[in-house]
Input
Amino acid sequence: MNKKTWLITDSGCDIPAGWEETHDIDIMPFSIMIDDKEYWERKDLTPQEFYELANNYSGIPTTNQIFAPRFEEKIRECKEKGAEDIIIVLINSVGSKTHDNALQARQNMTDSGELGDTKVHIIDSHCYSIGYGYAVVEAAKKIKAGQSAESVVAYLEDWFSCVEIYLLTFDLKHARKSGRITAAASVVGGLMGIKPVISMIDSKTTVIKKARGEKSAVEAAVEVMAERLTPGTPWCMLRTTVSEAEDYMIELMTKKTGKPPAMESFVGSAVGSNAGTKAIGVIIRGKPRR
Output
């Protein structure tokens, strides 16, 4: 990494295991509570281990926000290593206070004079999972290529003004109980095999299609996403435990767009606590909203 510019994100980014080392990305883990036991995402639990625990737990796993003192400690660490610019990209501020806590940390260090001339850029992704994980990886590549912090921030803000997430939920238990995916509460008929396609754009979740059966839901989602995706731009794929439906999604989207997924990863515990362990996520670039 360019030692003058440091890139930080949280573990809700869901980038594939090992990519943080490859691309010099500092990932701050969320802690997850399952059955009164605390686990650190990406350190104590792989996605697959989380799925097993969550599926055997009668309640809903909960995610703890990252508080201001942890951000202050991380910023100090970067400053000690010569950072002039620190770019921090975080999970949707509507779904977590983590973004607010990062802002508070920066303010605390500014007020105390500790921050000095170091610039700390705190970016609300307005989204979840590889909706920002993909952009963080691309930002890391730009830093390695020598681009300025300002140009990297501009890239990130542009991506977050366009990114759209589509979620196919084959089991609505987590989505309903967590309350984070509000559109899930409107879906009736789970016992009849009705599978919703939910759009997650900024802070709004909407059921845009309903289909009977997994295959039909995948086909319905692909039609919507292919229409909304900006031609020639990348799309990304999120997996959980529904491998046949996931493979079918990749097959159809690749045919429809002419491109395989630019990134393929597994839903981690922070996002999976709300989306569940039987879901498919697809990330596309739509039209600018800001």
Remarks:
- The chain has ten helices and 13 strands.
- The chain has a mean pLDDT of 92.
- The longest helix spans residues 130-144.
